[in-house]
Amino acid sequence: MTITTAHDVPYLDMSAPHFAMASEAVRDARDANWYARTNYGLAVLSYEDVSSLMKSPKLIQGSAAWPEHNGVHSGIFYDWWKRNLLVLEGEDHHRIRRLANPAFSPRKIAALGDRFESLANELIDGWIEDGQVEFVEGFAAPFATRVLCIMLGIDESEWGTINRLASTVGAALGVTIKEDIDEVDAALVELQEYAERLISDRQQNPKDDFVTRLVEANREGDRLTDPELRNLLVLLIFGGMDTTRNQLGLAIQSFIRQPHQWELLAERPRELAKAAVEEALRVNPTTRWVTREVAETFEHKGLVLEQGTTVHMFTYASGTDPEKFANPERIDLEAEHAPHYAFGGGVHHCLGHFVARSDMQAALPALATRLANLSVVPGGDEWMPDSGNTGPVRLTIAFDRRATTADGQQTA
Amino acid sequence: MKVWVDRTLCENHGQCAIAAPSTFEMDDEGILQYTEGFPADELEYIEDAMDVCPVQAIFLKGDQ
Ligand code: HEM
Ligand code: HEM
Ligand code: SF4
Question: Most CB atoms closer than 10 Å: which of A31, A140, A204, B26?
Answer without folding.
Answer: A140
